[in-house]
């Protein structure tokens, strides 16, 4: 199946016509799709089921208006709130309402994915992510741009692919500022661990993120490399401060996570990507005793889920999600079998 330039069919998402009017001598990024404010949700599909992929103790609500008012809505400031329910006391083992939404559009190599947020979910049992994945998984790849669990102090990035995509370099601060923690992206290795980096900055996750006024997460998905940057609010480059700027990653300094095509052929391993935002509770990562206990101490993850007051910080406050197009894509249009999303979870 051929994917034409995505998002242009979305009535809600603002497709920016200006992008096609001028052909600059040197290709650069221009805004392709903006998800923001009151129309944010129109370009996304709500999961409408329990977490049947990563076994979280959540029910991901459907798109009905009542559910939206509870856990997914645009606040008076014009920012989008996605949250786990923090008002219902539950019986042990019951599922807490939460959100998992995915863009209807899929964006090919040559895209720059951006999330501008003021707050990210955190707390014991909480497992949020901002990530992308192909319609066919794992053959079309997955990139996790923002992900945290429990009281982890920093953000983690990951790629998940089929066999053959790795990260060759292990040297921090030469090609990236983050720390490489696992170098094999193959989903079938180490229980779908993925090739991971951790950011060195506490401001990349949890309370310190919000205390610093939030910030911007970026993934550049090009044929040459997948590169990720994080900018606390005070350090956001001018070309990202407004949504309709012309971002120039070459001016941003080292990415914190870097996956060069020399050890992972991006053209081969990455099909067009849909964007997903979700907040799981417990489940396959956050709920593992070996992951839960080190930051959250004694007690089980499941016991946390019953008490709503544990989830007052389990919310995203998002100023915008943006996709810029115009980056390097040497593969050209992609063809691939129409895929079903199955066995798919950020991790
Ligand atoms: C999981 O839930 C989604 C959304 O309802 C559904 O489309 C999919 O078939 C389910 N997958 C499995 C493995 O049950
Ligand atoms: C980052 O957070 C960890 C865990 O909370 C803490 O031990 C460390 O001191 C913090 N680092 C800085 C620079 O604040
Ligand atoms: C990178 O790290 C090494 C070892 O910690 C250090 O000697 C070097 O100065 C660092 N380089 C830069 C550019 O920060
Ligand atoms: C839920 O969390 C929000 C955000 O932290 C807070 O304003 C609100 O008071 C909480 N709700 C309840 C019922 O505690």
Automatic annotation (TrEMBL):
The keyword Signal applies. Residues 1-27 form the signal peptide. GO terms for biological process: glucan catabolic process. PROSITE patterns: GH16_2. Transmembrane segments: none annotated. It comes from the Eukaryota. Residues 24-313 form the GH16 domain. GO terms for molecular function: hydrolase activity, hydrolyzing O-glycosyl compounds. InterPro entries: Beta-glucanase-like (IPR000757), ConA-like_dom_sf (IPR013320), Glycosyl_Hydrlase_16 (IPR050546). Pfam families: GH16_XgeA. PANTHER family: GLYCOSIDASE C21B10.07-RELATED, GLYCOSYL HYDROLASE-RELATED. This is GH16 domain-containing protein. It comes from Rhodotorula taiwanensis.
